[in-house]
Amino acid sequence: MSHDKKFNTGEEHLIYMANQIATFFTSQPGNHAAKGVADHINSFWEPRMRRHLFEIIERGGQGLSPLVLEAAESIRRPKAA
Amino acid sequence: MCGTENRFVEEIDYGTPAARSDKTVTLTIDGRSVTVPEGTSIMRAAREAGVVVPKLCANDMVKSFGSCRLCLVEIEGRNGTPASCTTPAADGISVSTGTERLQSIRRGVMELYMSDHPADCAACAAGDCEMAHMAETVGLSGNRYGMEGANHLAPSVDDHGINFKELDVSNPYFAYDPAKCIVCSLCVRACEEQQGTFALTVEGRGFESRITAGMDEPFLQSECVSCGACVQACPTGALQEKSVIEMGMPDHSEITTCAYCGVGCSFKAEMKGEEVVRMVPYKDGKANRGHSCVKGRFAYGYATHKDRILNPMIREKISDPWREVTWEEAYSHVASEFRRIQHQYGRGAVGGITSSRCTNEETYLVQKLVRQGFGNNNVDTCARVCHSPTGYGLKTTFGTSAGTQDFDSVEQTDVVLVIGANPTDGHPVFASRLKKRLREGAKLIVIDPRRIDLVRTPHVEASYHLPLRPGTNVAVLTALAHVIVSEGLFDEAFIRERCDWDEFQDWASFVLQPENSPEAVEKASGVSAELIRGAARLYATGGNGAIYYGLGVTEHSQGSTTVMAIANLAMATGNLGRPGVGVNPLRGQNNVQGACDMGSFPHEMPGYRHISEDATRAIYESLWGVKLDNEPGLRIPNMLDAAVEGSFKALYVQGEDILQSDPNTHHVAAGLEAMECVVVHDLFLNETANYAHVFLPGSTFLEKDGTFTNAERRINRVRKVMAPKNGYADWEVTQEMARAMGQDWTYAHPSEIMDEIAATTPSFAGVTYDLLEREGSVQWPCNEKAPTGTPVMHIGGFVRGKGKFVRTAYVATDEKVGPRFPLLLTTGRILSQYNVGAQTRRTDNVLWHDEDLLEIHPFDAENRGIRDRDWVKLKSRSGETSLRARITERVAPGVVYTTFHHPATQANVVTTEYSDWATNCPEYKVTAVEVSPSNGPTEWQEDYDAHAKKSRRIVHVEAAE
Asked: Which residues form the 4Fe-4S Mo/W bis-MGD-type domain (chain B) (predicted)?
């Protein structure tokens, strides 16, 4: 099909979802935005999604919002698959 | 415990509705003293005292009218013989109901009625005609007038045919035979008072008076919505279910719960042997109070439809035809495939999807199978694509993932705010209760892109309709909050007592920011600032304010934020914690609430306890004898992503059609195609089954015991009234699968599953089948603190402690209109059809809606050269489909709308992969599209149809029983 897809890869989708979460927590008061993002991802993201996120970050984190990168240190690293 | 012996459920008809008064009066009726609330009719007082007064034109669902003149009584010291239905009970009076004088009058009245009643009335013969019963009760023997002279029984030249009306069989479910009608107007009143449609009227005068539908049209062509209230009310058999005419009267019945929408109506399933004769709404049902809609009342025929698959089937590849196998073969095939896949690709390569249509007990077992048997948390449910933002939003703000009220609460509401819901179509029985309250004077605010029926319908008109552009809910709700805070309309005492005051102040300063003012929001939302201000003032100051919302709130990229914005409004105005107020999500499916409660989400155990909580896992680990994974599992969209990426290979889907109901069909199909073992457990070969390797036949709600939990947290019993046509209830199938995978499950009855739920889940601790038998139903939390359940939540304080105000910054969706896709598509449901239509399309409901139509504004249609009923192509960035257009001003210019009931249309081919930031609930309600004239179905639709036909081939073998 010749459709211009929003997300050509799962990776693009993952980056988009992480940034959406960051956008919400950016709007919240105080200095807890990074913690908010990390807590949310820890609570709702299955390990392979988090693992994929870390892979993106380790490659330089291109496309990820700065808040996601800041949150990364509080995101739980999944056990090796 | 759950009676296997046949019984017939009888309900007492008190004749007139209960009166509400703190004062009481005491009177004597036939020598019996009785005390009743002031305003009670003598008829009702008599029934309460055990005295049955003869009647035809009264029942306790509608106001009395005094037409039939059978219920006459004598009152000591008063003249005449007043009708007991319209005469209020008074202190100290003495009433006689059976004097010789009264009996003589009644015999005279009945004699006149019977002289114009068909002698061959089938309903009389069947025992379903009150006329015959009354004739007997008053002792009528014979008819001195004969059947000659003017009558309504047959065409006559003398009266120019005025008096006779033809039998009307246009409605597929009931017939109207005017010859049997005595024009008592019960049906007219039921249509007005119970249903609120006003489709029926009395036409003509005196002897020429006839009941007619619409403008003297056949029922089907009139505005009648086929709710069945008139049929139920009719005392003469003039309005009667066709099923009763065909099958005769039922001989036993059982109380059960409808399996369509989240209202969860109680019905009496009236049976003859193993066949349903009719479904009659149950007056003691606390969700519906004796009312019904066309789906629950009549659209149960799918249960016996020829398309139902009754034998398990297997195939190697999805391009192969299906091969029928024994249950044992199916179970062992699934077990070995899942084992192989987990061995080959890892423990996390398999998962399950629980159904919001199945019972709590069945849902609980599927998540147990995933957690205990598969050893992971890859379990999700269709609530993912509808109300998952409700779960997140209400848990964050209030502390619990559920609506705050019962449906009775609407009777005490003064201002109703409906946002992103279309109750008259989606939740019709609640809509009838809501309309009743609106006719009593409550005010209505509607926030919806479409001019839904509620905006203006007979005797109901919204004070405000905010026709916002799809995707701007958060902006508009925050602007409402701006008005409430800036004009000082918030309830400071409530907030200081119940909420975190600092958080409120932060939130207040946020909503006061200039970008949240109605004037600023006007541009993005298309709603005038004046309307926003008016609506905000009315909600904040109009008395008890209640918010009802649906999927127009949740199915957005800011769905969870919108739910929190709603919660903020309710807290700021003190509209929580008592009857008449609250935040009320209208749940889509019958058991969405229950499926969420039962631990269907990949991050939560039953009762909304996070999987990372050690104490919670410990409860189940000790009971189930396994170590549970403490990591959240994959949600449905994540499963599909993982499948496409190759790490997710097998899925057990119970009672859900993800291919048709989930967004971006191409992506769903790609995910399913990438899997090695898809097990579909359903009634029919649904669209998802086109991609399945194993098909396990499912059972209907009529074929099993269990419970459903409706939108008001009410746990209602589902009772088995017939043996499963496929042989096994769904919980039995899941149990056998688990056993094939080595689990030691030995549930003999769903009540034992509920016992396990209660033993492990604090909010269900008090729930047992015995309790449900005694109480009829209970609303959770049901435990030591609330032994018979909790109708209204957060009384005196919030579940989480202090109510939490959350900033709700508006973020425009990335699904934007532009030159190529200039229109916004939004989607919804229609009254006669239900979701993907698997059930309702297999009933006569298709007479009302046999295809999905695209609603488009005349301006947009004209620009594109589109005429009404033309085929049009609907194209988005994700895909394209074709359907016919309906030109209407219900949608604003720039907005188009369609339903998603028919697989031929596949509206989800065009919806996108954007989703709610917090829960991944898809953004169904906003898709940028272009609409253009077309010649018919697209190539893709034709290909899909061919593919579907091919993948449904079955090679039949002799059943090896």
From this structure: 251-307
| Residues near A35 by beta carbon (within 8 Å), at least 6 away in sequence | A71, A74
The alpha-carbon gap from A5 to the nearest alpha carbon of chain B, in Å, equals 6
The answer to whether residue B832 scores a pLDDT higher than 90 is: no
Question: For B455-493, how does the pLDDT look when each residue is reduced to its tens digit (9 = 90+)?
Answer: 999 999 999 999 999 999 999 999 999 999 999 999 999
Nearest to A46 among B634, B814, B914 (CB): B634
ipTM of the complex: 0.94
**Interface contact flag, A17 B920, Cβ < 8 Å:** yes
Q: Quick one: B436 and B292 in the same domain? A: no
Give the per-residue pLDDT at B961. Answer: 44
Q: What is the mean pLDDT of residues B339-347?
A: 97
In this structure, are strands B823-828 and B777-779 parallel, antiparallel, or unpaired?
unpaired
Q: Does B391 touch chain A (CB under 8 A)?
A: no
Our CA-based measurement puts residue A3 at a distance from the nearest CA of chain B, in whole angstroms, of 6
Please give the Cα distance from B412 to B864 (Å, whole number).
48
pLDDT, one tens digit per residue, over B547-575 is 999 999 999 999 999 999 999 999 999 99
Which residues, listed in sequence order, are joined to residue B545 by a DSSP beta bridge? Answer: B415
In this complex, is the C-beta atom of A77 within 8 Å of any C-beta atom belonging to chain B?
A: no
Q: Is A19 on the interface with B (CB under 8 A)?
A: no
C-alpha of B751 from chain center: 24
B599 contact A CB<8A: no
Which residues in A lie closer than 8 A to residue B804 (C-beta atoms)?
Answer: none
Find the domain containing B498 and state its range.
388-585
Tell whether B179 and B244 lie within a shared domain: yes
pLDDT in tens, B843-854: 999 899 889 999
Same domain? For B604 and B702 the reply is yes
Clarify whether residues B581 and B458 are in a common domain: yes
Instruction: Please answer whether residues B436 and B408 qualify as being in contact, where contact means their C-beta atoms are separated by less than 8 angstroms.
Output: no
- Measured in degrees and rounded to the nearest 5, phi and psi for residue B474 equal -65, -40
Alpha helices in chain A (DSSP H): 10-26, 33-44, 47-58, 66-71
Interchain contact A23–B (C-beta under 8 A): yes
How far is it, in rounded angstroms, from Cα B56 to Cα B635? 56
> What pLDDT is recorded for position B828?
87
